[in-house]
Write the structure tokens for this entry.
Amino acid sequence: MSDKLVIVMANTDPRNGEELGAPIFQATVAAAMEYEVDVICTATSGRLMKKGVAENLVVKEGSPKSVLDFIKDAHDAGVKFYCCSPNLDLFDMTKDDLIPECEGIVGGAHLIEEIMEGDCKVLTY
């Protein structure tokens, strides 16, 4: 059995806050269960790794917690968040624009290698 979970947020659109809860919540639960968890934000979800974005989003209207609060909870539980390298150009970001909870930048080869050569399970949103 694999002890690592990779969650790929590719089709999760930050403009629709209710899409953001499940992947971040499931990452937090898996980390609490002592699995190693990486969340790779790519395509539109890459915006979540940019300072000023997640703190202005909520999963449910009227919620006192921002999406950044959920990301921080997940990070505190041990989840590692990554930004996919094409997002830097796509969303006019530099490494300095990334939230502190973002562990770094990964390319497509990293994801392919994790899946093909690593011992992990993958969830895609």
Notes: The chain has four helices and five strands. Residues 21-32 form the longest helix (12 residues). The chain has one domain: 4-124.
